[in-house]
Fold ATPase.
Amino acid sequence: MVDVLTEITIRRPCGKVSEYAANPDRAPEWYENIKEAEWRTPKPLQVGSLIAFKARFLGRELAYVYEIAEYDPGRLLVMRTADGPFPMETTYTWEPIEENATRMTLRNRGRPSGFSAVFAPFMALMMRRANNKDLRRIKQILER
């Protein structure tokens, strides 16, 4: 099992942070590894929406489809994928901590199977590093 939780404080109102972070079209701007996001269902984002992502992680090209499992705008977004060797759940939370500051968390949980299971501890370490970098990037973008 891989379970990586990271968080950051962004000096912007919660609504602005969550609106930006929950928009799949913005993902390639702040996720270093995501190269492309494509809507498979009509906008706007809602439970049941499907978004295809193309990414690069650990030197490999990855293509996967996330389904929005839970969405409470401004508070919570949960996405899940069940395809591939590494089913993953990604959760964002946003919490106002001051009028102009938001605590954002990013959590990735998954259960690698087969050959991928051997590398789970290494993958968790690399995910934590990537997630921290991505959160610093979204903070930089939004605090400009």
User: Anything to note?
Assistant: The first strand starts at residue 2 and ends at 10.
